[in-house]
Amino acid sequence: MVVVNDASYDETEFILKHLEKSYKNLRHTTIKPSKFKHGKKLALTIGIKSAKYEHLVLTDADCFPANKNWISNIISSYTPEKNIVIGYGAYIKEKSILNKIIRYDNFFNSLNFLSFALAKIPYMGTGRNLSYKKSFFKKTNGFASHYGILSGDDDLFVNENATKNNVAVLYKPENFTYTKTKKTFKDWYFQKMRHLSASVKYKFSHKILLSIEPLSRIVFYSLLIASIVLNCKIIALTAIFIILIKIILFNFILKSLQEKDLLLTSLLYDILSPILYFIIHINKKMRKQKWN
């Protein structure tokens, strides 16, 4: 385990040195506080360079794996041609509407990138559940092409370097990681803004693919409303039939990813998410983001 003490002002350095005496598999490196600001990518790069071995497994400080076999399952999925392993980073279930909204948004985005990867079109991964080879990171120059963007240490790295043959996908529950959701809508909203700031650097073909789905939803629901207003029963019944098929499919997928309580949330969010993402994109362009 490699820990990067990223310019902390507390007793982290002292604690890490003390722990290293008891845990021989723990090592740490330190970025000294300075007047120059930097983001997460510097800490990750330093941590990767200080790692002894070839296979890197990454997660966030507030995450925990589904079980003790998480690391071994990731490593066993590597083959000579696989350089990247992506998995599902789930959120812990809590009793709140915001929790369900955040979890469904995460589920839907994860469903997209995991499904595309299984279809040999990988375009991103999540840093909460990600692995790649150290030699591959070095060969591809790491985060050099997007170092100036606050986010993107996970999705942009995968988007830039993944191919149809070099990515392994882990989507079974024993390979999940878990973390808590944001407690307020405002915190989640700004988190989404930061995450989406990386999407402008995606490959053009991926941008087109990702834009088709929300556009199709806007067209679909617009036609449904128009058919009801104009009393076009055939179109309305066809649309309702499509919605029922979608509910059946989503119910199966939600159960597979242990998110079955989100079925009702999916009906609401399916309509509202294109609007929300449009607002976020507009707001994102009007704000200058800062790393916290």
Structure overview:
This protein has 292 residues and is of the alpha/beta class. It has two domains: 1-36, no CATH class; 37-286, Alpha-Beta Complex (Spore Coat Polysaccharide Biosynthesis Protein SpsA, Chain A), CATH 3.90.550. The chain contains ten helices and nine strands. The strands form three sheets. Strands 3-7-5-8 form a four-stranded mixed β-sheet, with helices on both faces. Helix 7 packs across helix 10 (263-286). The two termini are 25 Å apart. The mean pLDDT is 89.
What's the layout of helices and strands?
Blueprint lengths: L1 E5 L5 H11 L4 E5 L8 H11 L4 E4 L5 E2 L4 H7 L7 E4 L1 E3 L5 H22 L11 E4 H6 L15 H7 L5 E4 L6 E3 L5 H12 L7 H26 L3 H24 L6 H24 L6
Parallel strand pairs: 1-2, 5-8, 6-9
Antiparallel strand pairs: 3-7, 4-9, 5-7
Helix pairs in contact: 4-10, 7-10, 8-9, 8-10
Describe the structure concisely.
This protein has 292 residues and is α/β, with parallel strands linked by helices. The chain has two domains: 1-36, no CATH class; 37-286, Spore Coat Polysaccharide Biosynthesis Protein SpsA, Chain A (Alpha-Beta Complex).
Query: Which structural class do you get from the secondary structure elements?
Result: alpha/beta
The percent range for strand residues is 5-15%
Order of helices and strands: EHEHEEHEEHEHHEEHHHH
Please tell me what the overall shape is: elongated
For the termini, the CA-CA separation is 25 Å
Count of domains: 2
Main sheet makeup: 4 strands, mixed
Uncertain runs are none
Please estimate the helix content: 40-55%
CATH C-level class of the largest domain is Alpha Beta
Spatial strand arrangement across the major sheet: 3-7-5-8
What's the assembly state of these chains? single chain
Mean pLDDT: 89
